[in-house]
Design goal:
Blueprint (H helix, E strand, L loop, with lengths): L2 H13 L10 E4 L1 E2 L8 E11 L23 H22 L5 E7 L2 H9 L9 E5 L8 E6 L5 E8 L14 E7 L5 E8 L8 H19 L6 E6 L17 E2 L5 H6 L4 E3 L2 E3 L2 E5 L1 H4 L8 E2 L16 E2 L2 E2 L9 E5 L6
Parallel strand pairs: 1-5, 2-7, 3-4, 9-10
Antiparallel strand pairs: 3-18, 4-6, 5-6, 7-8, 8-9, 10-14, 11-14, 12-13, 15-18, 16-17
Helix pairs in contact: 1-2
Length: 339
């Protein structure tokens, strides 16, 4: 795909969308232990695959993502990736008739990359503010929430620390909690997660994910009776037993039956198979307010490589020039909104 084609499509998609005020101020969450629109409110989650800037972040192992590092991560490649993320969100906007109200992201390095994305890339015209975590993950990747202040009036946010070190594991990503008021007047409680990796499929990685899910369940239990939406990369398939710790009290928007999963192409392709590592779950009172009561992978042709798989940014340390090794996941909340 040529650079001219990419830029032309990006500008076309952005020009077709409604533009609102420029992005607001940034915020970083510090950890704490322990009138109806045609499409409704679009909620999106996306693992954007190693969104690093090109500078060393003190005390983080980000050396691979420097211009002289193994991945040869240059400013040109960095800004191209920001443009690609903007292009994808503009395409969702063109399809749904409005910018996503809420966007959960994971594998973002720091405040710099989110500030560049929301204020210096083509996405600046969409008016997003954001909050993010600042966890102890050794690589320096975190989770974040982008939101439009007019569609989600932020009431509060903090990070929930997973007690990894106390249980013999390396630090992992914090869980991001945020609450806000929707145009309906209802308060929505959000949790954005990126659970520990399945790397090597060793027993320890499974135990670490269970610990993270236990921490997540405690956070969900503290919000009993409230409207809750959880989204993230769980590094686990929908039929993984760990979801029994979450469902109930939550309900999954992902395919559940084996036959349905065999037909679905999911959000991630690994070792010749599609799967759902990314999930959106909601509290029972929200379930009936989700369009079709399910979340769907975003499968625009430009997000796929020649084999029809997610067009990755990297294959190992080699630059592949794509968007991400994950596809975005979308759900739409339907409600009655004031004029």
């Amino acid at each position: 795909m040529s650079g001219c084609t990419r830029i032309g499509c990006l500008l076309t998609a952005l020009a077709s969308c409604i533009c609102i005020a420029s992005a607001g101020s940034s915020r970083t969450a510090k950890a704490e232990d322990g009138g109806q629109g045609k499409a409704g409110d679009v909620v999106l989650f996306w693992n954007v695959e190693n969104l690093f800037d090109c500078r060393h972040d003190t005390l983080k192992n980000d050396y691979d993502f420097l211009p002289e590092g193994s991945h040869r991560w240059t400013h040109h490649r960095y800004w191209r990736k920001l443009d690609d993320i903007s292009r994808t969100l503009a395409a969702v906007t063109e399809e749904e008739g409005q910018w996503p109200a809420l966007i959960g992201l994971c594998e973002v390095e720091n405040d710099t990359v989110l500030r560049d994305l929301t204020q210096r890339s083509p996405l600046r015209r969409a008016g997003y503010d954001y909050v993010m975590t600042e966890s102890g993950d050794e690589r320096g990747v975190d989770v974040a929430l982008l939101f439009q202040p007019k569609r989600f009036r932020l009431l509060g946010y903090h990070a929930v620390r997973i007690p990894s070190l106390e249980n013999g594991f390396r630090p992992t990503r914090d869980i991001l909690y945020a609450s806000g008021q929707l145009p309906t007047g209802d308060t929505l409680h959000l949790l954005v997660v990126h659970l520990p990796s399945r790397a090597g499929y060793h027993r320890g990685s499974g135990r670490h994910r269970k610990l993270a899910v236990q921490t997540l369940r405690q956070a969900v239990d503290s919000l009993a009776g409230k409207a809750v939406l959880v989204m993230g990369d769980f590094n686990s398939e929908p039929r993984d037993p760990l979801f029994r710790r979450l469902c109930p009290p939550l309900r999954s928007l992902m395919p559940q039956e084996r036959r349905e999963l065999r037909k679905a192409q999911g959000t991630y392709f690994f070792q010749g198979q599609w799967g759902y590592l990314d999930h959106i779950l909601v509290s029972p009172d929200l379930y009936g307010k989700v369009r079709e009561e399910k979340a769907k992978a975003v499968r625009y042709p430009f997000l796929l490589d020649e084999q029809g798989h997610p067009w990755r940014t990297f294959r190992g340390p080699s630059y592949a020039g794509g968007f991400s090794d994950h596809l975005p996941l979308k759900a739409v909340l339907i409600g009655k909104y004031p004029e």
